[in-house]
Design goal:
Helices cover about 0% and strands about 55% of the residues. By secondary structure, the protein is mainly β.
């Protein structure tokens, strides 16, 4: 089993920055992909960014955050960060970390609130 804990959410002004972290525990050696999603009330979760956690690093981003958000990893402990710059009010959401591990297992973190407002 894998457990995830997010941290780093909070309030930022438009144009500001926040850095989210996702720490994995448990069977972290089985994790091969981690991703950040976000969700606003009444909407489905959407993927924001993803990163492979072993071997060659591969990343992907939603068009809405390209050039503003950066996902990175610390391979040793499978911690993943999401650096969010030039934040916009439409980035306001609950952000969730997701890990893919084993054969076809997934797990989610509890979520962290990000609010962008002046």
């Amino acid at each position: 089993q894998v457990q995830l804990v997010e941290s780093g959410g909070g309030l930022a002004q438009p144009g500001g920055s926040l850095r989210l972290s996702c720490a994995a525990s448990g069977s972290i050696g089985l994790i091969y992909l981690m991703a950040w999603y976000r969700q606003t009330p009444g909407n489905e979760r959407e993927q924001v960014a993803g990163i492979t956690t072993s071997g060659r690093q591969v990343t992907n981003y939603a068009d809405s955050v390209k050039g503003r958000f950066t996902i990175s990893r610390a391979s040793a402990d499978k911690t993943v960060h999401l650096q969010m710059d030039n934040l916009k009010p439409e980035d306001t959401a609950v952000y969730y970390c997701k890990a893919y591990y084993g054969v076809a297992d997934v797990t989610w973190g509890q979520g962290t609130q990000v609010t962008v407002s002046s």
